Each structure stands twice: as structure tokens, then as C-alpha cells.
Amino acid sequence: MAEHARASSRQLADEFMEAVLHLPDGDKVKQCIQCGTCSGSCPTSYAMDYTPREIIAALRSGMLDRVLGSNTMWMCSSCYGCTVRCPAGIKLTDVMYQLKSLAMKHGRYPKGVTTPALQQAFVAEVESHGRNSEVGLMRRFFTSTNPLNGLRNLPLAWQMYRRGRLSLKASRLSDEGRRQLKAIADKARGG
Amino acid sequence: MARLFYPGCALEQSGRPYEVSALAVARALGLGLPELEDWSCCGATAYMGTHEVWALALAARNLALAEAAGADELVTACSGCFVVLNKADKYLASQPQLARTVNEALAAGGLTYHGGVRVRHLLDVIVNGVRPEAINAQMKTSLAGLKVAPYYGCQIGRPFDDFDDAEYPTSLDGLLEAVEAEVVPFPLKSRCCGGMLMSTAADVAVKLTYNILECADRAGAQCIATTCPLCTVNLEGYRQHVARAYGKSYSHIPVLAFTQLLAVALGLPRQETGVDMGLVPAEPVLAAYL
User: Fold this and answer.
1) pLDDT in the model for residue A42
2) Could you tell me if residue B127 is inside a domain?
3) Residue B146 contacts by C-beta under 8 Å, 6 or more apart in sequence?
């Protein structure tokens, strides 16, 4: 949850702009012409509260409360279709990543959105093995969200197991590799 | 030219048929692909959506290890790993400040990345390195008569590499034609399979996979060729979900990594093709070629 007092929409907007400007072409967000190519290209925009075009407009108006209260970035599958087509050169997939990061940091996302839990499970898997165990990831994810959904996926897991495609034992780095990875991660998160 | 192979986490688990066939095909084609020692997870979309610098540092650790091992190229068969590793390489090259920050993190683990490694997808290495003509010359079993939908998925062509077109790629088409398969027109060839939304927004991902399966079926495809272990699982592992929502399970259309079809065409031993490891049986479609 939020580490500090609840940030205002304006504070969140400033934080977002600062983060996005560190990325290549981050400043292009200011050059959106509202043409809607992103929304038209997006395979999941039909399921979003606000389309990608609307999100850019809201970001520029500082309406971060509404943006973070929507499901939009959590519906982004990272297909990069919008990034490839945007005539203003906006890297929209990166914008969605920044919004996810901002929402995770402040604990601000709608109830029922489970992607943050999946991302946390993923990070926990990589922290413990240096690699991602599919079984471990799903176990952590379903335990923290809906264990019943986990049970519903058991038939698929069984099919995978029978065909030699499910590893019960996680593949992992050497002890030295994991120590190295942890040192890098600690520095990257702090810096 | 020194190349190292980056398997990635999915390839050695749910992506086993792809891994087995990719390594066998690489051997048969004389491509040396030793594995990058002590590689770590690329970070995938989960890290990118958690903390950008952390994500780039995680990916860059692998690039730095490859560089220290003397490699010019790091080759991966997973489009998810490909886009993340390639993005890290390209972003560090274009943003000096970002490169400094990431290198400070790498230094905590005794590593540095100077930008000397080119990240490539295995499809690119086979099409533009080995070349389709050479594969045709080594072909033992023609795939003539096999109708294949070439499914590239989204991340292989976008947006950090230009070995093929981002909208309508054709390199896999040419490769399949080199082993005489019949490549069907496939308009959704680079449309997204839903990726990790299969876990977090299943209705949406099931709709996207349904679109792709229906498109392949209408084109008359007997199988779908893939270039990514995650697309493969989404397209073959959720047929019952597709059937519940849309009334069709497409049980006559198996999904095979492109290297599995190449392994068949090169006449490699059956266990090296991985064709018996699919969730949708490939035997009925491939029996004549095995």
C-alpha cells in the first residue's frame, strides 16, 4: 500500500512525467495529436475503461486519479502495436509500464485487478531462483488471488506434466549468480 | 562470430517441444549455440511494469555476461525474451543517463555492459544467417501438401528490431516455403495472442486466441506454426475455454513451433521434433511426414 500520505492527482502527474522523461522519446507524450491510431490498433481497447488515446489526454490534463482508477494499463498485453503505429512517435507501451509502476508504488489500482499480484509473484519467483518457475509463479499467484481458479487450471497442468512440459523442480542460478543478481537488484531498486 | 543461446524460463518448461527441436535443428544446420552460462530471467512484462530500471538491469545482466564471455550475438527463441533483451540493449545505447544508472547497478555485481552484444531471434538467425536455400538443400522430407498458418505473434517484429516487417512479416512464410509447405494467407499473423492476460483477464485473452484460431481455420490451415513459447501455450492450452465461449475447439489444428516443422523436414529423429509433446495431437496432420 501507499508508503506516504495519499498523493494528489497533481503530485502523481508530476511523478509520472518525471519518470517518463527518463525514457527514450519520453517527451513525445506532449506531442500527441489525439488521432486515435493507438486505440484503433489496440487488440484489447474494447475492454478498457479508457482507450489509450483517452489516457494520453487525461495524463496531459493531470487527471491521474481517474487514470489510476481505470483498468486500462492492466489490459495492456505489451504487444507494442500502438508504439509501432503512433505517428507522433509516442512509446505507448512504455507509458503503460510507467503507469503500472506508479500504481504499484502507490498501491492505487481498482479492486479486482490481479496483474499487480501476478507481477509480485513473478518478482518473488525470480528473487528466489533467479529464474521464473511456471509452477511456482502460478502457485503464488492463485494463492494470493483466487485459489479456486488455481484448481480450475489443474487439468492443464496435468496435461503439461504428462508431456514433460511441467517442471516441479525450479531451474535455478548458481549460488554465486543469485548473490550477484541480488546485489544488482538492490542497487537498481535503490538508485 | 561468437553466438550464445539464451533459452529463457518458458522454453525449458512449457516450451520443451520448441527447445528440443530448436537445439536439434541448430545442430543439424551447423549453428553453434552454446548456452549462456548462469543466465537469469529476462524480467518479461512483469518487471517492466514494476520498476523500469530494475527491469533493464535484470535484462542487462544477461547482456553483460554474454559480452564478458566474448559473444557478439545472444540468440533467443522466445519472442518475450527477445523484445525485453533487445529493448534493454537499444535503450542503454540511446540514453547515456539510463546506461550510467543501469551500469551502476551492474557494478554492484561486478559487471559492466558496453553495448557489444546484438540480440537476435532464432528465426532471424535461421532465415538471414543460414538462409532458406541452404535449408531446402538439406531437406529430407518435403512438407508438400501441408497447409500451415504462419503465426509470428506480436513481439517478434516490434519495435526494436527490423529483421522483418512489424505489421506484415514474411520471413517465416519464406522459410516454410523452403521446405515446400503450403503457407496459407493469414491476416492475423502478427496480432497478439493475449500474452499474460490469460492469467489476469482470461475472457479477453480467450477472445484474442479465438480470433487467431478462427482465422487459421477459415484459411484452411492444418496447423499453426509459432515463434514464441508463450503464444504456443495460449493457442493450444485453452481450447476448452475457447469452446465454452465460442462453441468451437479447433481440435483438428495443432500448434507447432516453427523449429518442430523444420525438424520434421530435415528428417531428424522423432523425439527431436517434439511433435508428440503437443496438447493438441499433431499426429493426424503430420503422420505422412514422420
Assistant:
1) 98
2) no
3) B181, B182, B222, B223, B261, B285, B286, B289
Residues spanned by the domain of B29: 3-122
Is B195 among the domain residues? yes
Cβ contact A188–B166 (<8 Å)? no
3-class state of residue A157 by DSSP:
helix
Contacts of A19 in chain B (CB under 8 A): 52
Rounded to two decimals, the pTM is 0.97
In the numeric block, which cell numbers belong to residue B143?
A: 512438407
Query: At A191, is the pLDDT very low, low, confident or very high (cuts 50, 70, 90)?
Result: low
CA distance B134 to chain A (A): 31
Contacts of B199 in chain A (CB under 8 A): 114, 118, 138, 141
Q: pLDDT tens, B194-217?
A: 999 999 999 999 999 999 999 999
Model confidence band, residue A1 (pLDDT cutoffs 50, 70, 90):
very low
Do B97 and B190 sit in the same domain of this protein? no
Residue A3 has pLDDT above 70, yes or no: no
- For residue B183, the cross-strand partners are B148
- Note the helical H segments in chain B: 16-28, 44-48, 52-68, 79-94, 96-107, 122-124, 132-138, 171-178, 197-200, 202-218, 229-237, 239-246, 258-265, 270-273, 283-286
- Give the residue from B122, B143, B167 where a domain finishes: B122
Residue B70 lies in a domain: yes
CATH entry 2.40.30.20 includes domain A9-106: no
Q: Give the model confidence (pLDDT) of B130-169 as tens digits.
A: 999 999 999 999 999 999 999 999 999 888 888 999 999 9
Say what the pLDDT of residue A6 is. 86
In a 3-state reduction of DSSP, which class is residue B147? Answer: strand
Q: How many domains does chain B have?
A: 2
**Are A77 and B277 within 8 A, CB to CB?**
no
For the domain that residue B57 is a member of, what is the CATH number? 1.20.1050.140
Question: Are both B184 and B235 inside the same structural domain?
Answer: yes
Every domain of chain A and the residues it spans: 9-106, 115-190
